């Protein structure tokens, strides 16, 4: 019985340290979450600072606190910070090789935050993948497609890809093309389109609508229309103008020709 208590007594300090470590981990995790949330709210409350930066700083603070917690836990087991630095220094090469993709994403995350080619809430195309930016953290960019599908893009791929930001500017140009018959009056058709554009309050008067005959096709005279609108109104104006122009053409006798095909029959 004495041997049991002696053996148990030898493990008591280890058990106590394990309980302390568990307590430090729990408290540290909670504190890291609370502090990072506070940083995010405070930074995002400043109007001139983009929310992307607030999220990024919050993530840095969280991982910084967790690193301190890890060093503290290791110290409870006799592994001091100096020893930890020495171990990490010796393992740097192996860690770098094993996590080179992750480290690349981390470095790209810093670059994305620094140069900010896109921000939260903007609609972008990253290397052929389109969606609204929902989150940008240390390692990945999260996009949401118009049909509410989540897409995760590693920051390394995002930084190395062609980025098209559809929301960067406050205005966009809507390009439309309408075909009319060769027997129709092109001036009449352009007047109809201009009248509809001027009647739509979403379409800007400066720059004014641009409407020209741009092509003589195989079966139609093609009219190109360029309209400037607020970026948020782009798709609604594009679809609405297509509908109202078609309806106005029908009412005023302007034809929209069908594609023609010619069949040649060889006798014999």
Automatic annotation (TrEMBL):
Residues annotated as domain Mechanosensitive ion channel transmembrane helices 2/3: 61-100
Subcellular location: Cell inner membrane; Cell membrane
Highest taxon in the source lineage: Bacteria
GO terms under cellular component: plasma membrane
Keyword NAD included in the entry's annotation: no
Membrane topology value: Multi-pass membrane protein
Domain Mechanosensitive ion channel MscS C-terminal: 174-256
Keywords for the protein's UniProt record, in alphabetical order: Cell inner membrane, Cell membrane, Ion channel, Ion transport, Membrane, Transmembrane, Transmembrane helix, Transport
Coiled-coil intervals, chain numbering: none
Residues passing through the membrane, by range: 12-35, 56-79, 85-113
Gene Ontology terms, MF aspect: mechanosensitive monoatomic ion channel activity
Domain Mechanosensitive ion channel MscS residues, every copy: 102-168
Subunit details: Homoheptamer.
Protein's job: Mechanosensitive channel that participates in the regulation of osmotic pressure changes within the cell, opening in response to stretch forces in the membrane lipid bilayer, without the need for other proteins. Contributes to normal resistance to hypoosmotic shock. Forms an ion channel of 1.0 nanosiemens conductance with a slight preference for anions.
Family, similarity comment: Belongs to the MscS (TC 1.A.23) family.
Protein name stated in the entry: Small-conductance mechanosensitive channel
UniProt source species: Vreelandella alkaliphila
């Amino acid at each position: 019985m004495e041997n049991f208590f002696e053996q148990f007594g030898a493990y008591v300090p280890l058990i106590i340290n394990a309980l302390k470590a568990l307590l430090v981990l729990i408290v540290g995790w909670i504190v890291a979450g609370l502090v990072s949330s506070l940083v995010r709210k405070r930074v995002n409350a400043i109007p001139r600072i983009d929310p992307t930066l607030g999220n990024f700083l919050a993530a840095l603070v969280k991982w910084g606190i967790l690193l301190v917690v890890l060093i503290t836990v290791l110290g409870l087991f006799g592994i001091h910070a100096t020893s930890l630095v020495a171990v990490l220094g010796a393992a740097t090469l192996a860690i770098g090789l094993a996590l080179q993709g992750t480290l690349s994403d981390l470095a790209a995350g810093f670059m994305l935050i620094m140069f900010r080619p896109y921000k939260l809430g903007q609609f972008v195309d990253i290397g052929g993948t389109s969606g609204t930016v929902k989150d940008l953290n240390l390692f990945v960019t999260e996009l949401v497609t118009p049909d509410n599908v989540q897409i995760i893009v590693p920051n390394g791929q995002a930084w190395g890809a062609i980025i098209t930001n559809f929301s960067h500017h406050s205005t966009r140009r809507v390009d439309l093309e309408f075909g009319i018959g060769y027997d129709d009056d092109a001036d009449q058709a352009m007047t109809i389109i201009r009248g509809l554009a001027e009647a739509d309050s979403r379409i800007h008067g400066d720059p004014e609508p641009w409407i020209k005959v741009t092509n003589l096709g195989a079966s139609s005279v093609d009219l190109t229309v360029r309209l400037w609108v607020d970026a948020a109104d782009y798709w609604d104006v594009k679809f609405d103008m297509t509908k109202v122009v078609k309806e106005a053409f029908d009412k005023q006798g302007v034809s929209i020709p069908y594609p023609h095909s010619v069949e040649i029959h060889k006798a014999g």
